[in-house]
Design a protein that fits this description.
The complex is a heterodimer of chains A (170) and B (139). In chain A, 52% of the residues lie in helices and 12% in strands. Chain A has helices at 4-18, 23-29, 63-79, 81-87, 102-115, 118-126, 131-137, 142-154, and strands spanning 33-37, 44-49, 52-58, 90-92. The chains are: A alpha+beta (170), B mainly alpha (139).
Chain lengths: 170, 139
């Protein structure tokens, strides 16, 4: 089982390697097979077939959500590939439902770390933005921002933490 | 219903015995018995076509889409490809069985997984076939 620090360092490593934060592009550049899927409710799924990692992406998601789903699935790919092979795959129903599953939290943390640069977040916080405003300004999701902020706090920053809703995207 | 059950139902519906169907379709009676009992599964879509013609039913009434997919993979990638395809479909079913996933998305996902499997097979054939074998494989 991957540790929280693994999620952070994996995200940092990916940013160093690819030098951008566009998760769909990174997935493509890593050679992950992307299958657009006309899901009604499901957001995405991650599965490995014959050693080939695959991301199934709901093809009518809002672009902001789509990027987050890719970030989340990339997290699974880098942190939980073995577990995915054993379980037969992961399916994302609600991305931010992390009550029961540590791996879901780690995948979200990975996505937050990769997609939200420290400096940008800090700057917005110093300007007095709250989590919701930051999410809007960075074209992201309030839950992702909240995860990022609590991670910054863990490293000694002192920002007011915001409860994030566990079942936000449901 | 499985292919075997559908075949049996269609044959009885057409009021044919197994031997009569064998005679009409050109498929051996042994094969028909094994298929009906689910002991074996068709490895070749052409034979299923012959049966369907002899029974006067469309081939899609004998095979569902995932059975057709498995046969198709088997024709291109042999018995191992087929086993892999069967396992992937079983995995997806198991994944859904335990989850809170809506049924309406299961079919969608099944279709997508089948599409993905074809693509993966193609990618892997290019990726893992040693150079000296490559020419025969790329037909």
């Amino acid at each position: 089982m991957a540790q929280v620090t693994d999620a952070i360092s994996a995200a940092n490593r990916i940013y160093r390697t690819y030098e951008h934060r566009h998760t769909e592009r990174i997935a493509k550049e890593m050679g992950i097979l992307i299958i657009p899927t006309p899901f009604k409710k499901q957001k995405g799924a991650y599965k490995v077939i014959d050693r080939q990692p695959i991301i199934f992406i709901n093809d009518h998601l809002h672009p902001v959500v789509r990027e987050i789903v890719f970030g989340h699935e990339l997290g699974h790919h880098l942190l939980h590939r073995e577990e995915a092979i054993r379980a037969g795959g992961f399916q994302e129903f609600s991305l931010f439902d992390m009550r029961e599953n540590r791996m879901e939290y780690e995948a979200n943390l990975f996505a937050a770390q990769l997609m939200l640069p420290d400096d940008d977040i800090k700057e917005l916080i110093y300007r007095g933005y709250d989590v919701q405003q930051i999410a809007k300004a960075m074209r992201s999701d309030i839950n992702l921002v909240a995860i990022k902020v609590s991670e910054l706090n863990r490293h000694g920053c002192c920002f007011r933490e915001q409860e994030y809703h566990n079942k936000f995207l449901k | 219903m499985t292919f075997g059950e559908r075949l049996k139902a269609a044959r009885e519906n057409a009021k044919l015995t197994q031997s009569k169907l064998a005679e009409r379709s050109g498929i051996s009676m042994r094969t028909i018995i094994n298929w009906e009992n689910g002991v074996r599964k068709p490895s070749n879509i052409e034979k299923v076509n012959q049966l369907a013609t002899a029974l006067g039913v469309p081939v899609t009434s004998l095979l569902d889409s995932s059975e057709e997919f498995v046969i198709g993979i088997g024709e291109t990638y042999g018995a191992r490809g087929r086993k892999g395809a069967e396992k992937v479909l079983a995995d997806v079913n198991a994944l859904f069985a335990g989850g809170e996933m809506a049924d309406e998305d299961l079919d969608t996902f099944m279709q997508a997984v089948q599409q993905a499997y074809w693509e993966v097979k193609k990618i892997n054939r290019e990726k893992y076939t040693p150079k000296k074998y490559r020419k025969e494989d790329n037909d």
